[in-house]
Amino acid sequence: MQEIGIMTKRMMKLYLRNPLSVLFSFVYMLMFLVLISLFLGDYLAQGMTEVYAEVTGMNFSSIRWLVDSTAMAGVLMINCILIPLNVLTIMVEDSSTNRLDSFLAGSISRSKLAAGYWLAPFLVGTVLNILCLFISEGFIVMNGGKWLSAQATFQMIGLIIINTFSTTSILFVAAILIKKAQIYSTFTGIMSAFVGFITRAFLPIGMFPANIQKLFALIPAHHGATMMREIMTKDALSSTFGNVVDQTVKGSFMTAQEIEQIYAAENGIIYMFGNIRFTFPAMLTVVIGSGILFFVVGCIIMMKYRRK
């Protein structure tokens, strides 16, 4: 256990003492906060108001709260990916500079070495994302929203831990296989560019073609982001659609539940695989299962890792 602690502390110190690495991990969150504060939040709220203007019973005063909560849930999922991604850069650099070979030649076992390399990005990602949760909540409250309930807060913390576990395990395997720092830097750039689409923070899932939407079922981060949105938007969604009644909208009769579900599905608060809704337990199983699978695969690869 002492060897695992030493490896974990080493990686955490190397990451945290580099301000640029830490800042880059939060670049999407900072960007979203600036954009939403300046114009994007009002623009999205206004767009939703226009789309649902014909719906009787809508509480339009809660729309900004709903929009901000939806956006911040996506940002938190992005951080669950980017923070471990950047911490694992240290592992790849160790491999590139043959420092990993030195560790393998030492007295530390491969299993403990793998645990130390995996544990650091998981712990850093979990702690920093919990901090980001409260920052996000403060931002939502400043714009007229409300704090999450104690129960919802603990649920979000649990989801942060689970999602960080999954993303760390997947990226850990990628880091072991890539080995070269230059290639991993390219991989980091690609991931940083696509992470907003994977989590649907940039574009709501409703804007993708139906066949593309089905492919998201294979992406654990998509399910993680959906679960976070479901928890973070629960009160805001209820406040916005709570007084909606069964009615005819644009020539079609819809129940209040159908109207709310259409909004939730189009904005990634729930996930529909065709006409089948993915339940919360099913998404949780995908996320946890992927984390366990890739963690085991990563450990196996590390056990068979050959020195240069």
Helices and strands in order, then pairings?
Blueprint: H1 2-16, H2 19-25, H3 27-51, H4 63-87, H5 89-96, H6 99-105, H7 110-142, H8 150-178, H9 181-198, H10 210-215, H11 220-232, H12 234-241, E1 247-249, E2 252-254, H13 256-266, E3 271-273, E4 276-278, H14 280-303
Antiparallel strand pairs: 1-2, 3-4
Helix pairs in contact: 1-7, 2-4, 3-4, 4-7, 4-8, 4-9, 4-11, 7-8, 7-14, 8-11, 8-14, 11-14
Helix content: over 70%
Number of strands: 4
Shape label: elongated
User: How is the largest sheet built, in terms of strand order?
Assistant: 1-2
Mean pLDDT: 86
Cα end-to-end separation: 27 Å
Radius of gyration over C-alpha positions, nearest whole angstrom: 21 Å
Structure report:
- The strands form 2 sheets. The protein has a two-stranded antiparallel ribbon with strand order 1-2.
- The chain has helices at residues 2-16, 19-25, 27-51, 63-87, 89-96, 99-105, 110-142, 150-178, 181-198, 210-215, 220-232, 234-241, 256-266, 280-303; strands spanning 247-249, 252-254, 271-273, 276-278.
- The longest helix has 33 residues, at 110-142.
- The model has no long low-confidence stretch (mean pLDDT 86).
- It has 308 residues and is mainly alpha-helical.
- Strand 3 (271-273) and strand 4 (276-278) form a beta hairpin.
